[in-house]
Amino acid sequence: MKYKIRLLLIVSATIFSGSTYSQNVFGFKAGMQLAKITGAGDVPHSLLPTLQVKGVAILPLGDEVTINPSLGYSGKGYKWTNISFEDQLGNSLGDGDVIGLFHYLQLTVPLTYKIVADGNQEYYFGAGPYFSYAVSGKGKLKHVAVSSEEETWDLFADGAYKRTDAGIAVEIASQLKKKFLISFNADIGLSDISKQGGGKLKHLAGGLSFGYLFAK
Q: Which of 69, 132, 185, 204 has the smallest CB count inside 10 Å?
């Protein structure tokens, strides 16, 4: 686990520091995203609201092409709603929700095309790979009267899920007054996160973030 996190940090440091172009810009962004799991078989259709907080950079490769890497926290997972629960005797406990939240450290490296609207506004359209590692994951029952031992659990305790994930990220962003950033992301998982047979499970998430850039 420590080796994989260290490798992800080394790769990200190389990307963030590799360019020597004088107009490199660094900052951070944070916001919400809606996540779900897709795949074969019976999967949840509800969307799970999660958070994302990342450091960002804008590294120009030319007048119109940039690399806009980001590194930080990305919450992903699933949500089952209106599930009927029963106790061991078959008595109804009512309907509730089942939530699985994965806490990822994610590196995203999109190659983007820049459009300059005027001196105070720029737009970025791009896509590229993302790589992530789940530091932890928690399952939770909501709106159901169960014991505290049954209410939450470790998603990785029974070996059902892989900690690593990878896919393609599509990003659209706007830089305002060279200081502020509005960014939309869509993360399309290509890696099967399931360790069990019977169908592949993949992450899908889309979000909106607001950020600040430490531009000169």
A: 204
Domains of the chain: 2-213 (2.40.160.20)
**Residue 187: pLDDT over 80:** yes
List, in sequence order, every beta strand (DSSP E) within the chain. Answer: 25-39, 48-60, 65-67, 70-86, 92-108, 111-118, 121-142, 152-154, 164-176, 180-189, 201-213
Of 125, 128, 127, give the one whose Cα is nearest residue 113. 125
Question: Bridge partners of 33?
Answer: 50, 207
Q: Which tokens go with 100?
A: 């699985």
What is the C-alpha end-to-end distance of the chain, expressed in Å?
38
Decide which of 153 and 17 is more confident.
153
Single-letter residue type at 42: D
Q: Which amino acid, one-letter code, is at 158?
A: D
Q: Cβ of 201: how many Cβ atoms within 10 Å?
A: 22
pLDDT of residue 161: 93
